[in-house]
Each structure stands twice: as C-alpha cells, then as structure tokens.
C-alpha cells in the first residue's frame, strides 16, 4: 500500500507568452489565477503515523507561494516561459529540495479555462 498526501495552494500572477497562435494577445501582459497541488507519496512513520507533518509541507509551500503570488512570472528567475509545464517544473525543483524521493506529483491548474498540467515521478 502507498499513501499519497497532498496540499493545494493558489497564486495570482501575470505573464506574457510567445506562441504561434493568438500571438498579439498572448504577448500582452495578462493574468491568471493558478491552483497548484503538491503530492508526496510513501509510507507513514510508524511512531508519528505521518508521511510528513502537513504543517511542515504547508510552511515550504508558503515560501514558494510568496515567490509566485502577485508576480510578473517573466521576471521570476528559473521559470523560463511561464507555461503550466514550466511552472510544474519550477515547483517540482523547489519541493524536491525538501522531500527528495517522497515527491510524487505536482499539478498546476487554471480553473477558469479548465487547463491543467501534471508532472509525475
Ligand atoms: N501547453 C501550453 N499551452 C498554453 C499554455 C500553457 O501553459 N501550456 N498557456 C497559454 C496561455 O497562458 C494563455 O493565456 C491561455 O491562452 P488560451 O489557451 O489561448 O486561452 P484564452 O486566451 O482564452 O485564456 P484566458 O485564460 O481567458 O486568457 C496558452 N497555451
Ligand atoms: Zn496566459
């Protein structure tokens, strides 16, 4: 059996995007509300009964959220073009530094348009 523990968070941010369709509006600065979810997987510690303490996970997520919320994502170092794919990779790298092999999945969604990207181990 494998346990999966998740924590969701949201951030609101602006970006521009260079793409081959909807070229002009995509190059204009525009914003999205993003909902992200980090999932850890493994076995709980028999003494604590926890995979990790959710308060610990929430703390690391809040630090990450502050780097994304109300930001112009084009200016956030190490994201690259601010696509859902690159946001997943950015969040993955930040969380992997704390949870290594326990990190199982990162998802970023834009609820308003139904867009989502999942990055799995
Ligand atoms: N593979 C990806 N494709 C696109 C991404 C992405 O992250 N990964 N992102 C975008 C844009 O950020 C874009 O703003 C969404 O554009 P579009 O799909 O054209 O939809 P709307 O402009 O109608 O969406 P709004 O949320 O209303 O701006 C595009 N492609
Ligand atoms: Zn966009």
How would you characterize this protein structure?
Keywords: Lyase, Metal-binding, Queuosine biosynthesis, Zinc. Pfam families: PTPS (PF01242). It is a single chain. With 121 residues, this protein is of the alpha+beta class. It contains 3 helices and 5 strands. It has a 5-stranded mixed sheet. Strand 4 and strand 5 (115-120) form a beta hairpin. The radius of gyration is 16 Å and the shape is elongated. The relative contact order is 0.22. The model has no long low-confidence stretch (mean pLDDT 98). Ligand LPXRUNBV is lined by residues 17, 22, 26, 30, 32, 83-85, 112-113.
List the defining traits of the structure above.
single chain, about 120 residues, alpha+beta, Tetrahydropterin Synthase, Chain A, 5 strands, binds the ligand Nc1nc2c(c(=O)[nH]1)N=C([C@H](O)[C@H](O)COP(=O)(O)OP(=O)(O)OP(=O)(O)O)CN2, about 30% helix, binds zinc ion, about 35% strand
Task: Explain the layout of strands and helices.
Blueprint: E1 3-15, H1 23-27, E2 30-42, H2 54-68, E3 71-72, H3 84-99, E4 103-110, E5 115-120
Parallel strand pairs: 1-3
Antiparallel strand pairs: 1-2, 2-4, 4-5
Quick structural summary:
With 121 residues, the chain is of the alpha+beta class.
The name of the CATH topology is: Tetrahydropterin Synthase, Chain A
What small molecules does the structure contain?
the ligand Nc1nc2c(c(=O)[nH]1)N=C([C@H](O)[C@H](O)COP(=O)(O)OP(=O)(O)OP(=O)(O)O)CN2, zinc ion
Query: How would you state the average pLDDT, rounded?
Result: 98
What are the segments in which pLDDT stays under 50 over at least 5 consecutive residues? none
Helix content: 25-40%
The DSSP helix count reads 3
Topology pattern, helix = H, strand = E: EHEHEHEE
Enzyme class: lyase
EC number: 4.-.-.-
Organism: Hydrogenophaga taeniospiralis CCUG 15921
Binding site for Zn(2+): 15, 30, 32
């Amino acid at each position: 059996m494998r346990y999966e523990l998740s924590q969701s968070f949201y951030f609101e941010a602006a970006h521009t995007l260079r793409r081959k369709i909807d070229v002009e509006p995509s190059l204009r600065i525009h914003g999205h509300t993003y909902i992200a979810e980090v999932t850890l997987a493994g076995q709980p510690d028999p003494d604590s009964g926890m995979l990790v303490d959710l308060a610990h996970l929430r703390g690391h997520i809040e630090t990450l959220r502050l780097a994304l919320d109300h930001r112009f994502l084009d200016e956030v170092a190490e994201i690259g073009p601010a696509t859902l794919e690159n946001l997943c990779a950015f969040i993955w790298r930040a969380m992997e530094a704390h949870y290594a092999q326990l990190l199982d999945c990162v998802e970023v969604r834009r609820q308003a348009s139904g867009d989502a990207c999942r990055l799995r181990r």
